[in-house]
Amino acid sequence: MPEPLDALSAVIQQVDGPAAADVDRDATFPDASIAALGDAGILGLVSSREVGGGGAGLDAAATVVEQLAHACGSTAMIVLMHYAATAMIEAHGSDELRRSIASGEHLTTLAFSEAGSRSHFWAPQGTAAREPSDGAVVLDAAKSWVTAAEHASTYVWSSTPVEQSGPMTLWAVPSRTEGLAVGPAFEGFGLRGNESVPVTAVGARVPRDAMLGADGAGLDLALQIVLPWFLILSGAFSLGLMEAVAAETRGHLLATRLDHLDQSLAQQPLTRVDFARLRIDVDRTRAFLSDTLGALSSARPDAMLRVLEVKAVAAEAAVTTTDLAMKLCGGAAFRKEVGIERRFRDARAARVMAPTTDALLDFVGRSVFDQPLLGDA
Ligand SMILES: Cc1cc2nc3c(=O)[nH]c(=O)nc-3n(C[C@H](O)[C@H](O)[C@H](O)COP(=O)(O)OP(=O)(O)OC[C@H]3O[C@@H](n4cnc5c(N)ncnc54)[C@H](O)[C@@H]3O)c2cc1C
């Protein structure tokens, strides 16, 4: 049996890469890729060995997300959400649920954003109320964006607390729970295979032990556990898109000729300078991501600052890089033939995914001034 990261290359070459253009064109969920990733041990990669998973950490997860983003942004974002939710379930979920995720047959995701509080995920409006008759909990909410909403088996779900004070409580909610409604279908500008759709809960009953961590402690847990995974993997996602667009642009510039000059586009001085800018942006982003991972693994004092910075750095670099690639490849990029316009669209998601670039810049500013991340400074 090949190691999961070796098997990943095979899945990308044989399944995920070839399907990417169709997933984008038809806005279809990449079923075959997700099934193959489950079989290859990639969906169970970050689950601990004691429950049958791969026992890998953020470094390996970042490699997976980057390589997937190189091939298909939608698949990469689905796996990113799966890993971020898995980190929370690994820390506070039941052994049964952890084993199910480790097996590779169980996709999970985050259900944080809501129609009312929008990108302010730290302020859920959805409620959780105790049913006096049997102690079950009843969830009501309007979740606005849940990636893989139809295909995930579990949602890591935020609500206001049941009894305690505090901004948030987290739950592992089975997606087939009665009272949940999914849709309408996702018609996105980019990441079109993501299936990031609203999920509404009206009187959805879950057992009390679906709670992840303590009642009212959800925001602390989201910031301590989910946020580092989400931010770092978002950086890896943007980096994968940038590497893909750099390779596609380079190939186009080398192969495309100006016949009257008997030269390639790559031989034009201004084109070389623009491409150098693009390459430096990609390399700078890789260095930043690598430094962030290093800071975390060595518990450097600035590790949390790097974590807060990395998604914004990478997302904005991906926006700039894909825009420059569109210019460099001209009308050819404007058509779908070079593949660059898909990266251009996909790259714009990370900027507006919560915490958005704006929110992260505020967090970074608060952090350097020793102010709390949220609330009055
Ligand atoms: C492809 C995709 C997949 C997603 N998947 C998931 C998922 O699986 N789970 C999940 O929970 N969510 C998911 N989301 C939702 C995402 O995390 C954000 O919540 C959502 O994109 C925010 O969009 P909005 O229109 O509600 O933003 P808004 O909150 O309306 O923000 C719009 C803009 O205003 C800025 N802004 C907001 N508040 C302020 C302020 N106070 N001051 C100044 N500027 C402000 C924001 O930074 C942003 O640029 C996904 C989003 C996308 C695009």
Which descriptors would you attach to this protein?
Butyryl-Coa Dehydrogenase, subunit A, domain 1, binds flavin-adenine dinucleotide, 4-stranded antiparallel β-sheet, alpha+beta, 377 residues, 3 domains, Butyryl-CoA Dehydrogenase, subunit A, domain 3, single chain, 4-stranded mixed β-sheet
Give an account of the 3D structure.
This protein is of the alpha+beta class and 377 residues long. The chain folds into three domains: 4-107, Acyl-CoA dehydrogenase/oxidase, N-terminal domain (Butyryl-Coa Dehydrogenase, subunit A, domain 1, Orthogonal Bundle), CATH 1.10.540; 111-215, Butyryl-CoA Dehydrogenase, subunit A, domain 2, CATH 2.40.110.10; 219-368, Up-down Bundle (Butyryl-CoA Dehydrogenase, subunit A, domain 3), CATH 1.20.140.10. The protein contains eleven helices and ten strands. The protein has helices spanning 4-26, 31-39, 58-71, 73-92, 95-102, 218-255, 269-297, 303-328, 330-334, 340-352, 357-368, and strands spanning 108-111, 127-130, 137-146, 154-159, 169-174, 180-182, 197-206, 211-212, 257-258, 263-264. The strands form three sheets. Strands 1-4-5-8 form a four-stranded mixed β-sheet. A four-stranded antiparallel β-sheet has the order 2-3-7-6, with no helix packed on it. β2 and β3 (137-146) form a beta hairpin. The radius of gyration is 21 Å and the shape is globular. The model has no long low-confidence stretch (mean pLDDT 97). The structure holds flavin-adenine dinucleotide.
